[in-house]
Design goal:
Helices cover 58% and strands 0% of the residues. It is mainly α.
């Protein structure tokens, strides 16, 4: 074998081993990043939502959510959107009241603003007011609806049955 052929073979072996090592490093990094918690500055966690939950604010936020978030988080916030299966970690279930009660408005605002793979950052795509509106809308998924809060009016049912 000529010297040039030996150098070429040696170079290819080195490149191959280097490529394998790089792939292993990326895979190990991905595994460790999968379950890492969001790191949100303490001062940001303490922020309160300056936007009032008006009907117009929630309607505007719903439009943004449907355009920007529903593909992953799902139409009803369950983390079951059409693109959810393609992402690791999976999108959050925004209907989980236990989890949503643990996070502050400031933390949700930070997560929307900064993003984290695979979720994009919306800091430059949405205004601050729009992002705070999304915080309100996201919170609405874990809140009981008025229809489920209402108890049947026993007096009305009894009066109606006594007339028959």
């Amino acid at each position: 074998m000529s010297t040039d052929a030996q150098i070429s073979l040696k170079t290819r072996k080195i490149l191959f081993v280097s490529l394998l090592a790089l792939i292993c490093i990326v895979l190990v990094y991905a595994v460790f990043q999968k379950d890492r918690p969001w790191v949100v500055p303490e001062e940001v966690k303490k922020l309160k939502n300056p936007i009032a939950p008006t009907e117009s604010t929630l309607k505007a936020a719903k439009g943004i959510y449907m355009d920007e978030c529903a593909e992953c988080h799902g139409e009803y916030g369950k983390g079951d959107g059409p693109k959810a299966m393609m992402h690791t970690p999976a999108p959050a279930d925004l209907t989980d009241a236990g989890q949503m009660n643990k996070v502050t408005d400031g933390k949700i605002f930070y997560q929307i603003s900064e993003g984290r793979k695979p979720m994009p950052s919306f800091k430059k795509r949405l205004t601050e007011e729009q992002r705070w509106g999304l915080v309100l809308f996201v919170r609405s998924f874990s809140q009981p609806t008025a229809a489920t809060d209402k108890k049947p009016d026993v007096g009305k049912d009894a009066a109606a049955s006594s007339k028959n």
